[in-house]
Specification:
This protein is of the alpha/beta class. It has two domains: 178 residues, Rossmann fold (3-Layer(aba) Sandwich); 75 residues, no CATH class. Helix content is 35%, strand content 23%. The chain is built from ten helices and ten strands. The strands form two sheets. A six-stranded mixed sheet has the order 6-7-8-3-9-10, sandwiched between helices. Helix 3 runs parallel beside helix 5 and helix 5 runs parallel beside helix 6. The longest helix has 18 residues.
């Protein structure tokens, strides 16, 4: 349902500070895949998600969703196809608006919007039902401004907003990195419930090697703009963190030295 064909991304193309961020990326994602993406800082992980989302466009190659070429589609044109949660809990929500107003905006993602949010009794009932599934008590705080929520509550709300329209693809960009370990585990559990319920296709960037092997069904490792490892099936099931580090060294020709990754290994 997602295909990247010979994709190249170059920042500052043709200038002295030209930076070749992605190099000849070929990736085929099957519907229902949950792919974790690991790699050191600057490997191209977030840039890859930005190309899928339409935040960036490649210098060469194509991006296809459900067989349709969306390479040159901007973010708003892909909005009905893609949900995204960022690392910063402050992104993805409007702080001054209430929980129910944020959810109303999410429902209308990718649609023509008027000045009215379309809030009514039926929609509020549905919002309460969905929020109750998060098990955070937010179903009783519909009129609470989002700025008053904790980081974990806000990230859970963002996750719900990203998936409320049943997107074709969910992008998670180190979305638990800014949370404390207990809250991060809570958000991960919520994620797994939502993904399973809607059979979502997921690309998740993470710095946690153990998480990259236990979540989802497939692991990609990136280095210097290339996919150097694609793990799935029995090989992935048997893989340990130490073996994953050894694979990185063997494929890249050097040791992985990113402290953020090693501290979570």
């Amino acid at each position: 349902m997602l295909r990247l064909n010979n994709v190249h991304k170059i920042f500052n193309y043709g200038k002295l500070n030209e930076n070749y961020v992605l190099k000849d990326i070929n990736l085929q994602v099957t519907r229902g895949d949950f792919i974790t993406i690991i790699g050191s800082n600057g490997a191209g992980k977030s840039t890859l998600l930005n190309l899928v989302a339409g935040t960036l466009f490649p210098e060469a190659g194509t991006v296809e969703i459900n067989g349709q070429d969306v390479t040159n589609w901007p973010v708003h044109k892909r909005a009905h196809l893609i949900g995204r949660v960022f690392q910063n809990p402050l992104q993805g929500t409007a702080a001054e608006m209430t929980i129910e107003e944020n959810l109303s905006l999410a429902v209308k993602r990718g649609q023509a919007r008027g000045l009215r949010l379309g809030l009514n009794k039926k929609r509020r009932t549905e919002f309460r039902r969905l929020l109750a599934l998060l098990e955070l008590g937010l179903e009783n705080r519909l009129e609470c401004p989002v700025k008053l929520l904790s980081g974990g509550q806000r990230q859970a709300l963002t996750l719900l907003m990203a998936t409320i329209g049943h997107p074709q693809l969910l992008l998670l960009d180190e979305y638990t990195a800014a949370l404390d370990p207990k809250t991060a585990q809570q958000i991960i559990a919520i994620t797994e419930r939502i993904v399973a319920q809607h059979n979502l296709t997921v690309l998740m960037v993470t710095h946690d090697l153990r998480q990259s092997l236990t979540m989802g069904n497939r692991t990609l490792m990136m280095d210097q703009g290339k996919i150097i490892l694609d793990l799935k099936g029995k090989e992935r099931e048997r893989m340990t963190v130490n073996e994953l580090l050894a694979k990185f060294s063997a494929r890249s020709g050097r040791e992985l030295t990113d402290d953020r990754i090693l501290l979570h290994g």
